[in-house]
Amino acid sequence: MPACITLPFKFRKNDPDVPKITRTKAASRTDRQTKNLTASRIFARLSHKVLHNYYMTMNGKLQNGFAMHSGAFVLKTHSPADVAHTLIDSGRQKEPFYVFDMDEAHRRIQHFKSQMPRVQIFYAMKANDSEYMLKLAITSGLGFDCASPGEIYNLRQLNVNAKSIIYAMPSKTAEQMIYARDSGVLHTTFDSSYELKKIKQYWPDARLLVRIRVEGKSVYNLGDKFGCGHDTEAIKLLDEAAALSLKVVGVAFHVGSGCSSIDSHENGLRYAKALFEHEARAGRQMKIVDIGGGFLSDKTDRIDQVANIINKALEEYFPDKSVQVIAEPGRYICDSSYTLYCSINNVRQVIKDKEVVNMIYLNDGLYGTLRYNESWHKVKRYRVSTDEESLEKAILWGPSCDSTDRIMENFTILLPQCTPSDWLVLPIQGAYSFGFATNFSCLPTPRTRIVISTELWYKLKESKVFKASDFVVNPDINEPLPTTIPKVITENITTDVKSPFLLA
């Protein structure tokens, strides 16, 4: 099904993917009406929460480009780059696509574990919640950081134990709390008095972590939105929670997405230690420290420096090994495992400030998966028909009709002269790309070619998480990905609507 969800969408009465308690309702609603109801219209008339959650899940899978994928290609001799270049050189792949290197994500998980052996990973699935990424995280023994009922639902669909989930969202609605509670999730965060009162009413048995604010130099500073002050304000909230007979089991903080301050985690652990001591003096005990995420994803692995600081801080502030330490890396695990190969739709030259600039029109843009990007300096051209040339200024445009769909507007882009036969290669694209994509103008998101080495495949294929059908053992690497272009409607359409505006 194309990513544009306003195309005809039908339920089968015995569709195993539709929650059992909603099958009859869904089928009866569509049977009484026309068979060509759109997905959006079907769900606009249905109020059942579970069915609505299913719609959100299915829409997410379509947006993420995983509908109609053919499984992970098991590579015996080829590299992920070989697969991409072969696909392009064959001339059969016309649309932009991603290559997801499962081995790279697996390496990142193992590296994180080796650098911080005391820290348990709770993968921040908001960074990339694709099916294979989640399955890889599950088979790697990770817990999960969720920020919405939809994320909890997706994990429970994959049989993730609810006790392996932390609902790390300090501000939740009553309905969201009830959903998490009824799903069996135990742990969540808070940073305000109002949140405590809601928890008391709707989720009184929750195990709470107070979210404190820790400043740092980050791509996105979460402290502007979440986290209470680490001293007076946090202590006041801890005492209020005790007065409400709520159970606070720990302290959580987040230094911000893409944090470049390597000492921020040390500050957070020092603040957490002070709050642990306050609770101990009050006769209360906490046992969890959540150091959040913010680990940079570039290939220099500067996480080694951060890990050294965190390990030393843990020895200083929390030498007692009975204190459980968790982290919520997302970007670090998934970002470098995805590379976007973006086809060039058109090129034209203009004069700007008495200088020739190449206007390059791509088939993905700000309304697609390129809204959030920190590695544009690494963009390069994959040459198809031209030799190496000098670099020229370029402006990159997305495929939409919106003139604000300009990529990396505030930077000077230098590229060799490009033609519509060339492709741009954008590495480190796995985090916050599909999740930020929109359905503006019914423009689709790129498909994904998933690849895995035989070595990793042998480790994963026997797990209960992956199925045999999840892998293609002898793949044809020339096989193009399914098109995102919708099916052409050629049959005659009868309608009572008569438009006076017909083009000659």
Automatic annotation (TrEMBL):
The catalytic site is made up of C401 (proton donor)
Please state the pathway this protein functions in, per its UniProt record: Amine and polyamine biosynthesis; putrescine biosynthesis via L-ornithine pathway; putrescine from L-ornithine: step 1/1
Name the family the entry cites: Belongs to the Orn/Lys/Arg decarboxylase class-II family.
UniProt name for this protein: ornithine decarboxylase
- Keyword field contains Lyase: yes
Origin superkingdom: Eukaryota
Q: Which GO terms describe its cellular component?
A: cytoplasm
Q: What is its EC number?
A: 4.1.1.17
Any Pfam family the entry gives = Orn_Arg_deC_N
Where is the Orn/DAP/Arg decarboxylase 2 N-terminal domain positioned along the sequence? 105-333
Q: Which GO terms describe its molecular function?
A: ornithine decarboxylase activity
What is the enzyme's main class? Answer: lyase
Functional description taken from the UniProt entry: Catalyzes the first and rate-limiting step of polyamine biosynthesis that converts ornithine into putrescine, which is the precursor for the polyamines, spermidine and spermine. Polyamines are essential for cell proliferation and are implicated in cellular processes, ranging from DNA replication to apoptosis.
Q: Which SUPFAM superfamilies match?
A: Alanine racemase C-terminal domain-like, PLP-binding barrel
The reaction(s) this protein catalyses: L-ornithine + H(+) = putrescine + CO2
Annotated GO biological process = putrescine biosynthetic process from arginine, via ornithine
Residue numbers of N6-(pyridoxal phosphate)lysine PTMs: K126
